[in-house]
Amino acid sequence: MPETAGAALGEPGFRPRAGGRDRVRRLGPAWSKALVALATLAVAYAVSSLPPPEGLDQRGMAMLGVTVVAIVFWATECVPIPVTGVVVMLLTTLYGVFPLARSISFVASKVNALVLAGLVIAAGLSAHRLDRLIGLRIASLVGDRADRLMLGTMLATAALSMWIPNTAAAALMAPVAAGILELSGAGKGGSNLGKAVMIGVAYAATIGGLGTPVGTPPVPIAIDNVERVTGTRIGFAAWMAWGVPVVLALTLATWGLLLLLYPPESRVIAGGSERIRRELGALGRLTGIQRRAVALFLLVALLWLLDPLVSSAFRGSSWAADWTYVVSLLAVVLFTAPAVGVLDWRELSKEVDWGVLLLVAGGLALGEGLRETGVVSFLSSAVAARLAGANPYAAVAALAAVAALSTTVFCSITATASAMVPVALGIASALGLDPRVAGVVAGVGSSLAFVLPASTPPNAIAYSFGYFRNYEMAKAGLLLIPLAVALTVLVCAPIVSALV
User: Fold this and answer.
1) How far is C-alpha 426 from the geometric centre of its chain's CA atoms?
2) Half-sphere exposure of 16 toward its Cβ, with a 13 Å CA cutoff?
3) CA 445/CA 401 separation, integer angstroms
4) In this structure, what DSSP letter does residue 3 have?
5) Which pLDDT belongs to residue 72?
6) Nearest Cα to 154, choosing from 118, 180, 182?
7) What is the DSSP letter of 145?
8) Interior CA angle at 278 toward 273 and 281, to 5°?
9) What 3-state class would DSSP assign to 304?
């Protein structure tokens, strides 16, 4: 979770001025980060100055240098992750990869319209506690059996994560899961039920984001890259046609695997569903503004789903071709408009993490730079030579697995997608595979951050409750990744080929 930049006197984050020794100790990590950043920039400059190999020119070497900076900065967080996006845009300008106007134009990309809409909808639901209400309603549909309560909690988390950030979904549902575990008497660190439920919430938050284009940033990044490379338009409804089945398949598979690894000590949790009903009762009846927020949410979702009909009815109109993104901007207006909306702009500006837009923009600039300078083609040819003759499904699965494991290096699913999806598209083209399938599957693979608590915020949130250890999540994650990749390829590939 992000830390505040500073705190005023009297606020919880305030600290009195430290003495000389304390000040040196406090500045130590900052100096370490600065040294890492400077050393990385020096290495990048050296890379950009090397003679290019056959198949690349000096702009390609410069882009490799920029990529080194992006990878190290994202992996070490020597500067804030969103600032790395700005650094990428700055370096692509300074190294002559793009003119300045082109570098900063990625901030205003169609992808960020989707991301912004998702952030605004999440803020609107959260401001009026509707996100918690939705999650509890879904969880209330199951009984008191331990495995069903676990599944209900996971499905509720996944459903929320389709429409709000996965971090918010985990932050909402993890306390609900912890309350149920308290009723069962599950001990922290020693209970199999505690391990299975809390790891399940973390994984479900990550998986659920794959269901819609606004669920998690890797999805719109994959859509943008596929559209740029293949010219194939992927609308909101088209993504959901394969995204939702993938979410359901992965959630059920994860539930089954966790129950196998960590079988619950008790079959029934007495009072588990009663606790959920009490929490629902505490939320009370819907107020007028809550009803308006629900109506706006349903209206925007419906407009997104009408994308195929609008595109077909108004074929030839530029706005109809971009209907998904037009609706995204409309959502921002509706949720904040006087009398109609449910959010005050001041409230929204405090709640939304605007840095995500910079992070996505930097990732898009990185991917486009790698493509335009020929780096993607160069790397794709080298990899394709080793994969020549491989089964197409196996090759696509390998790309997705590499993307999934790369999340442990980048510790950011957005950064992983930004780096891996363009390369996967290039490799698929070089191998004669359908690049649309490869791009979508690589985007999904980039979201499978299952190995470490530090891999993604939902993992860290669930870990903070103390019900499982690092290695227990790693064991589940390393077993789940190949299973998730196989399911993604089997479910996703045939539907993508048929629908786009």
Assistant:
1) 22
2) 1
3) 6
4) P
5) 87
6) 180
7) B
8) 125
9) helix
